[in-house]
Amino acid sequence: MKTIALLTLLCLSGALVALEDSMVLRQGAQNGQNGVYVVVEPGIGTITLYTSEGTTLTKHGSANFIQDVEFWSHYVLGEQNGIAYTALRQGSANCIPTVEKLFEMLPNKPTPKEVQNGLKDYQARARQAEDDFWKDDHPYDGVVRGALGATTLMLCIPCKRAILVYDIQKQDQGPLLAAYRNFAAELYVPQVLASTPTPADLLAQLPADIKAEQKAAIDAQLKALADSGGALTLKASDPWVGAGTGDRFVIVDPPNQHLMTYEYTGKGLRVASSRNMQVDLLIPTGMHSDPDEGRELAEYARTRKKELEEFKIIPDVFYFKALVAQKQVASGKTSDLQANVTNDDLVLDFLKSHKLFVYKLQGAGNGLEMSSVRDYTLDVGLQLQDGEFNDVKNAYMAWQNAKRLIDAHQLQLAMSNFKLACTLYPCIYKDIEKEPRAKVLKSDPDWQPTLDAAIKGCEKLMKDREDRLKKAQQDRDARAAAAGK
User: Fold this and answer.
1) Which of 19, 61, 20, 15 is nearest to 37 (CA)?
2) Judging by DSSP bridges, how do beta strands 195-196 and 95-96 pair with one another?
3) Which three-class secondary structure state does DSSP give residue 279?
4) What's the confidence (pLDDT) of residue 19?
5) Which tens digits make up the pLDDT trace of 30-61?
6) Assuming Cys at both sites, which of 93, 101, 281, 393 could form a disulfide with 97, CB separation 3.0 to 4.6 Å?
7) What phi and psi, each to the nearest 5 degrees, are found at residue 449?
8) Distance (Å, whole) CA 409 – CA 412
9) Which of 374, 371, 442, 456 minimizes the C-alpha distance to 411?
10) Residue ranges of the domains in the chain?
11) Residue 409 binned pLDDT confidence (cut-offs 50, 70, 90)
């Protein structure tokens, strides 16, 4: 029981940290050794190794990631064009490829569009953006994300654009810094590095209107770059970090729409892949996902025909998207991303767009592969509509029970069921008022307040229903007009 209480306390201490990732990380037992807990203190920077056996918690070695990142971010190796280059900007020598080598892979010839807008080539603009970032100091702001592999710990410090990898095999020596890297280089990858399918392949499969929107967005982006002087700009990172099998790691950076995978080989940190997710997020419905929207809608229309006609609903994507948008409650999460990695399968859930992605960390060609996508807006919409249908049904069931209780002279219990009915489906008050048996409840002090609330609730319910029917029709008309051009 003491061991269970201890583990619970450790888990709770991680839950109290105001971060997306837990900073109490657990490594499974292996090679006859006890599993290790790595406890990261975001405010102080300590990384401490613990083992738990029986009722004993044993503290092993420690390190401090704040000291490490601050040292390497100020340790100057040299200068280029009058700009100091620090060790962190360059990354440790055992990174594969090095930061500089990855920059050299970026496009270094201006496209016709870039020439037209008076822009330098992509690589030159990425280098200029790096110069602009690194000329200023970026003090640690208390935000750190991390994940634990088989033998290493990866920490990501977003404000520094830093990845730190620690070897944790020598417990009593504590975490030993094994590699560090400026991960901005991966964020500049314009399409993909060792990942399939390519954005160009995906874009070719998208509907014409979405391709047109993408083209317009790219043109606007190029114009904005020209107006601003041409330097690329990365957004402030808000990454999620996870671990696959072995010492394979994944970083998802939603603000910059990039997904990167890494592997610590025992000798160095290898950038396994980098993927620009901008086109992935444009996929309108799904890819390699069942059932498709058409079949799902047809089955729903067949099995809910009576209810749909009663509610005057045209059961199409436009209606259900309007329903979901209307019902959406703002989340308290700072990010709209939820993620999970199990073995080498990565699942990303983008809450605002209701899109679910599955990636294989070791997919085609041993690279990152997007294997399937599903826009689950329709799935959510069907469930929400069923919820409305069920509320009506359950409201009438509650009122039937209230009438039974009235007949049994159990008026307090009947009143409770009356309140429940009006809460579930406020418009039921119109039928209840016509019911002779309801008269005996009118002397209850809660009758009139419940009735007044039901009248207001019914007005809102009808307005919401009318608004989403109107919104759905507007979207249908807009799609039809776009298709007619």
Assistant:
1) 61
2) unpaired
3) coil
4) 37
5) 554 567 899 999 999 999 999 988 899 999 99
6) 101
7) -60, -35
8) 9
9) 442
10) 2-281, 386-484
11) very high
